[in-house]
Design goal:
Strands 2-1-3 form a 3-stranded antiparallel β-sheet, with no helix packed on it. It contains 3 helices and 3 strands; from the N terminus they run H-E-E-E-H-H. The protein is α+β, with helices and mostly antiparallel strands. The protein folds into 2 domains: 60 residues, no CATH class; 89 residues. A hairpin with a 5-residue loop joins strand 1 and strand 2.
């Protein structure tokens, strides 16, 4: 009798029973996913998680529900800096400065081409050193000084935003 009791006790501890919660959600591709811990559920899906209670499941027999693996799709997670700002927030801060830099650079290059063309025209006509050339040169310097200031301002702001992004642990690719 003692031997039977010992065998029963050993079997009881060999197959422990436990209750657990499974978290179920459907991702953007329509794949049903399961996790046994809420922290394993991507944050963007936590509001649509369904819970399933499982009782009296033997630990050794508990099925594993792997998440669907799709090499083209990265795990959907909320990516933010330490202040909670995401990629879109950073891109909106950078966008106007990039636009200003692009526009000012294009205008600077256009003014430079125009000055070169007009200077070449004056030389072709034999007016290389006259007052008209000086007026043209002064106008070019004034115009390009405005564009150079805009370019410098945009570059400085982009540099500051880059430094700010590093300090707030934002992904540097968000600024591109």
């Amino acid at each position: 009798m003692k031997e039977i009791f010992t065998v029963l006790v050993v079997l009881l501890f060999a197959f422990p029973l436990q209750a657990g919660t499974l978290y179920k959600w459907v991702d953007k591709q329509g794949v049903v996913n399961y996790a046994d811990d809420l922290s394993k559920v991507p944050p963007s899906y936590r509001d649509q998680v369904e819970t399933e209670e499982s009782k009296d499941i033997q630990e050794e027999v508990t099925p594993s529900f792997p998440q669907a693996v799709n090499p083209d799709v990265k795990e959907d997670e909320t990516k933010t800096d330490v202040y909670g700002h995401d990629e879109t927030w950073w891109q909106e801060r950078v966008r106007p400065w990039k636009e200003q830099l692009k526009e000012a650079t294009e205008k600077y290059e256009a003014a430079k081409r125009k000055f070169s063309e007009e200077t070449e025209e004056l030389r072709r006509r034999g007016f290389g050193g006259n007052a008209r050339h000086k007026i043209l040169s002064d106008k070019f310097k004034e115009e390009t000084a405005t564009y150079e200031a805009q370019i410098a301002e945009a570059n400085e702001m982009l540099r500051k935003l880059s430094k700010e992004a590093v300090e707030s642990s934002a992904n540097p690719n968000w600024l591109k």
